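re the bet — no i am not wrong, look at it urself. input seq straight from the record:
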Amino acid sequence: MKAEFRDTLIELTNMDSVEAVWALHCETMASYGFDRLIYGFTNFRTETSLGDPNDFVILSNHTTAYRKGFVEGGLYRNAPMVRWALANEGFCSWRVMAPRVTSGDLSDQERKVLEFNLSHKVHAGYTISFKSVSSRAKGAISLTTRAELSQDQADEIWAEHGQDIVLLNNIAHLKILTLPVPLQNQTLTPRQREALEWVGDGKTMQDIAQIMGLTQATIEKHLRLARETLNVETTAQAVAKAAFHNQMYIIEAT
């Protein structure tokens, strides 16, 4: 293993924030020719849905316009490579789409995604679908090449560096799973987090009030606000969701 590659792995595994991991990962992938990435993860997948989009972990360095259309606009739901990632694990060249494109075997929704991608020069790359840690979890990443590169060139890069690229992406994914995930409009206050932690430890309202030096009414208020912040109905759901996203038992940076 080259010293530079090893140093990157060590730096990646020692980082303490999702933002830092993502910045380093984007820089590293760009050095291989893949300069635009979208990473997605959910812990709330069912047989018929990926869950509430507000609960997704989405990281991307694509342009705002691309993210607005593909993610916020919901085009990802009909993206052929997203569907591939949901049904498979491992990696796949976007060349797999060529026969369907040539034969015209695309639905209207899929064609719309393809046209949108081409308009943003998203035409060559690879998709990695990570091994799921549970039946409710799914994670994947889309690696788009620099705009001037073709799929032939992407495949050449992969033939030479594919194993290293997969390793780096697997480690980045596993590292992100261990870190507090910044969710849109779902940030708990320290008091809300502490109250949920004590609930998770099996403490009663009376116990928590005594431990935190607050009234039971105040504890109940913190838990209500935590439920609202996390968009769940019960405190048990709030504890589960906060735990899924590593928002509990956080060691604050000093």
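see?? DSSP finds eleven helices and five strands in the chain. told u. also The two ends are 34 Å apart (CA to CA). so pay up
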